[in-house]
Amino acid sequence: MLQTCLFPAAGYGTRFLPATKSLPKEMLPIITKPLVHYGVEEALEAGMDNMAFVVGRGKRALEDYFDISYELEHQIAGTSKEPLLTDIRKIMGSCTFSFTRQNEMRGLGHAIYTGKTLVRDEAFGVILADDLCINEDGENVLSQMMRIYERYRCSIVAVMEVEREQTKSYGVVSGRFIEDDLLMVDDMVEKPDPSEAPTNLAIIGRYILTPDIFDILEHTKPGKNGEIQITDALKTQAKQGMVLAYKFKGRRFDCGSIDGFMEATNFFYAKEYKK
Ligand code: G1P
């Protein structure tokens, strides 16, 4: 039903330096597939076919990844290596890719606002590719959120419970449960100190946003760390109308951290490679 998935991908990925000195963090591979590949697969499965990227300097590898590599493809055509490209070719044949640049790093809210030019006047998904999400028992996380969007037609954030001490790494929501796993948001705080966090329900990198978020973002003042925060814009949207927080089914690997990245690597190795 929704066509566009936005991938804010302008960040530096400093935790993975020196690798990310010349490699976009979204291109770090979990075994053989870059993180962004998993994200695009998830969006496609959720029915989206317009992949929109907000990139920054040094992110050319992302554009190249979703393009044909004539020389390489010619070299391996007809060899035993050719099947290794089947997945990426399927993706390239199923969707379009567009890119815009965020010239200054002014926060996730600003990155999403920069993506306005690539998003039609309709609701859209957002995937932060360094949050790798899987659900072995059913629909992927963005698809689960699409079902909720079909019923409520408002912005939705995916949340999970975290240890209290971890609230300072996330946007945190509070509100009232309207279904077992669905919360109507009344407050949101970006990266609160554990002593000030309203709950331990943390936002992860999956959003469905209605397009009025762009007007709100335009008027959202810099917040935590002097950056324009999507969390603050969503709080305004919740006050003006309705925002839902959904406790998703599945598992999320924080591949923006070394620990999470290793967990994801071990998980996919055990699942797909270990005989
Ligand atoms: C961003 C958001 C935060 C959210 C997190 C999910 O933070 O600002 O609200 O909880 O993504 O991964 P970042 O991890 O980019 O600092």
UniProtKB/TrEMBL annotation:
Lineage: superkingdom: Bacteria
GO MF annotation terms: UTP:glucose-1-phosphate uridylyltransferase activity
Keyword line: Nucleotidyltransferase, Transferase
Enzyme class: transferase
Family membership noted in the UniProt record: Belongs to the UDPGP type 2 family.
Protein known as: UTP--glucose-1-phosphate uridylyltransferase
UniProt domain Nucleotidyl transferase: residue ranges: 9-267
Species of the source: Campylobacter californiensis
EC annotation from Swiss-Prot or TrEMBL: 2.7.7.9
Enzymatic reactions: alpha-D-glucose 1-phosphate + UTP + H(+) = UDP-alpha-D-glucose + diphosphate
Keyword Transferase: yes
Gene3D superfamilies per the UniProt record, alphabetical: Spore Coat Polysaccharide Biosynthesis Protein SpsA, Chain A
Functional note: May play a role in stationary phase survival.
Gene behind this protein: galU
One Pfam family per UniProt: NTP_transferase
Single GO biological process annotation from the record: UDP-alpha-D-glucose metabolic process
Keyword Transferase recorded: yes
